[in-house]
Amino acid sequence: DTNARLAPGYGPTGRQPPTRPPPKLPKPEFLLFRTLGENDRKTALGPVTYFNVGTHWVARGHPTKLKAVLKVKLDEDADRMKHLTLGHTDTLISRIGLGCMNFFDGYGTSDDATSFRCLDAALDRGVTFFDTAEVYGRGKSEALLGSYFTQNPRSDIKIATKAGIRPGHDPLFDNSPAYLQEALEGSLQRLGRDHIDLYYIHRRDHSRPIEEVAETMARFVKDGKIGGYGLSEVAPYTLRRAHAVHSVSAIQNEYSLWTRLPEMGMIQTCAELGTTFVAFSPLGRGMFGDRFPDPQQFDRTGFAASMPRFKPPHFAANCALIAPFKDWARNKGWTVPAAALAWLLDQGDHVVPIPGTRSAEHLGDWVDACDITLTDTDRADIRRLLPVGFAHGDRYSEAQNVAPERYC
């Protein structure tokens, strides 16, 4: 016998919502016979059983036949993911990526096995774009991805990482050529690669003209070390200045239903210049999950713990304002996070959200957002429920706000 995993949300009766406990299941043999066809009944030998684990139906049965069934199921699911070409490159990425900060930072403890299960689920569902950074877990996030993809090599996997933040150093933000070269070599080593698809300046070092930084990144592209470069938490004018030196492939700024600053020029500038806009924290750091987060469970030393929106009295006010949107999404037959991501995807064909999670179950709640097509009525409902600027409290504390560029 062999164990194999069905894609999240698939059961013996076909496509179903990931409810627990699962609905009444037919005889186990039906799983094999229905997929392989009636003519294969005689060759589907051996007992077949399955059981529910989280959002997965796990099946055990005849090794050859069962693997064939699962491959069909997984391929069907992965084919549903949409793709786009990363700005100014020939790199094809999934329309929804996976942010990998949560594997180590900010939201409590995790372990490699949990993270690997999440990565398994992401691949099963068609995600091919993974976002990390040198600073996430002080290199541990990169190392984990390197370990996982060494064990699970695939030619369609695209990785983005970042440099520019040096905890414990003065200055904290460093965009010098020497440091960026050192950081890039370290990232390549941890990721087990000789090429990084997208390399970001994580935060801008204002002691250096952005044109100088763009020249450094252009050299990395020319040397074949990176496929393209990006900038994070910058203003439209910085994008234009850098782009004039060498095409900027991506901008990564925070963007979600409760953080709308990119609509004040950045979304439009990216569209004009052919730059992909990558939205981090697209689910509002858990606020647009099916359940509200518990700030008490945040890592006390993590980034989210200090954010004003999660502190009294703002947190309670924000929950009260977002709750009607959650009810609306559920009444539409959608999960809350999938609805929130569908709204983001609707903001432009160049917008790529990268929700972060280390949970395969949570990933299953939003990864099918590409299936949702919003109508004009849906858009009007969302504007009514969550008008621009509804959120209480700033997204960052004063100490955290020293890095992002402000332009409005």
Give the secondary structure arrangement, pairings included:
Elements: E1 2-5, E2 10-11, E3 14-15, H1 29-36, E4 49-53, E5 56-61, H2 63-78, E6 83-85, E7 92-94, E8 98-99, H3 112-124, E9 129-131, H4 140-151, E10 158-163, H5 177-191, E11 198-201, H6 210-222, E12 229-232, H7 236-245, E13 250-254, H8 266-273, E14 276-280, H9 314-331, H10 336-345, E15 351-353, H11 360-366, H12 376-385
Parallel strand pairs: 8-9, 9-10, 10-11, 11-12, 12-13, 13-14, 14-15
Antiparallel strand pairs: 1-5, 2-3, 4-5, 6-7
Helix pairs in contact: 1-2, 3-11, 4-5, 6-7, 7-8
Supply the key terms.
globular, 34% helix, 408 residues, alpha/beta, 12 helices, eight-stranded parallel β-sheet
Model description:
The longest helix is centred in the last third of the chain and has 18 residues. Strand 9, helix 4 and strand 10 form a beta-alpha-beta unit. The protein is of the alpha/beta class and 408 residues long. The chain has an eight-stranded parallel β-sheet. The protein is globular.
Short structural description:
With 408 residues, this protein is an alpha/beta fold. It has helices at 29-36, 63-78, 112-124, 140-151, 177-191, 210-222, 236-245, 266-273, 314-331, 336-345, 360-366, 376-385; strands at residues 2-5, 10-11, 14-15, 49-53, 56-61, 83-85, 92-94, 98-99, 129-131, 158-163, 198-201, 229-232, 250-254, 276-280, 351-353. Helix 8 (266-273) links the parallel strand 13 and strand 14.
Percent of residues in helical segments? 25-40%
**Rg from Cα:** 22 Å
Which percent range describes the beta-strand content?
5-15%
What's the story with the biggest beta sheet? 8 strands, parallel
